[in-house]
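Your task:
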Amino acid sequence: MWRLLQGLPHRQRAALVLPYYEDLSEEHTAEVLGCSSGAVNSLVSRAMGTLRKQLKATAHE
């Protein structure tokens, strides 16, 4: 999983890592990234979509 996370763009990876691994709130994550909470949600959504596609591709190999 870490290999897949490392393949994400920096901001998408940070939007996932900060709340889930560092236990930051959405608001604090937005503050750290210098964006709005809505932007954090968008980054997380795009990152999760990318990870889902990568996991499906890996499962079919």
Notes: The longest helix spans residues 37-60.
